[in-house]
Amino acid sequence: MTKTLSQGRYLHAKFLLHLIIAVTGIISVPLHILFSPDPSVSVTKFTIHSNIIVAIVFIVSAFVLLTKKQENNGLDLCKNAALIYMIIVLTTYHFILSSGGEYSGIRIITNFTLHYFTPILILLNWMIFEEKKWYSYKSIAFWLAFPIIYGVVSLLRGAYDGFYPYFFLNPNNPIPDGFGSYINVSFVIAGFTFVYCILGFLLIIINRGVLRFERAKQLRKYKKDNVIGMK
């Protein structure tokens, strides 16, 4: 009975956190765009796109938890993708982009929720609530799909109309307005791709390490119980 009650509280807490993450995205994304000095620029940002993905994934996950259904591997892969994207959003903004613009009014709050609050909640969710599974290294290709599509579309659009969502994707202007050349931009893209791969690799390694530890713990308990049973 106690174990069932504990499991119920665990699932309730997980559902509540998923709901907070989803609602934060549903509210923050449109407000951040609507109150932007140039909404047409805001909608091109990786932060906006990745937070939309996060909101959709966690709405679906919250619904699955609410209906007491089993989360499938596809949903787990999407939540891991969301974790990787949010780590990139937080670190890229904090270390590269945070000094590049001023925010006022409601966008001070939405800037914080999109770049810091949501990424931290997703990391906590992964640490506390997500079941660790044995993912294939091929999963990294799945997690890379969206960033690659985003980068290709951004470069193609920039070549067509001259607009680039970030200065480091702009080969036409010198630093700080651009990155000087296609060679420089290709190094940036290669660097981001490498970071995505490393994050994916670490995610898989940590998942496998936790699984090995849990299996070893269960095996020790099983052997101990057998020894006690034989006495």
TrEMBL record:
<protein>
    <submittedName>
        <fullName>Pr6Pr family membrane protein</fullName>
    </submittedName>
</protein>
<feature type="transmembrane region" description="Helical">
    <location>
        <begin position="180"/>
        <end position="206"/>
    </location>
</feature>
<feature type="transmembrane region" description="Helical">
    <location>
        <begin position="108"/>
        <end position="128"/>
    </location>
</feature>
<feature type="transmembrane region" description="Helical">
    <location>
        <begin position="77"/>
        <end position="96"/>
    </location>
</feature>
<keyword id="KW-0472">Membrane</keyword>
<keyword id="KW-0812">Transmembrane</keyword>
<feature type="transmembrane region" description="Helical">
    <location>
        <begin position="46"/>
        <end position="65"/>
    </location>
</feature>
<dbReference type="InterPro" id="IPR049713">
    <property type="entry name" value="Pr6Pr-like"/>
</dbReference>
<feature type="transmembrane region" description="Helical">
    <location>
        <begin position="140"/>
        <end position="160"/>
    </location>
</feature>
<keyword id="KW-1133">Transmembrane helix</keyword>
<feature type="transmembrane region" description="Helical">
    <location>
        <begin position="15"/>
        <end position="34"/>
    </location>
</feature>
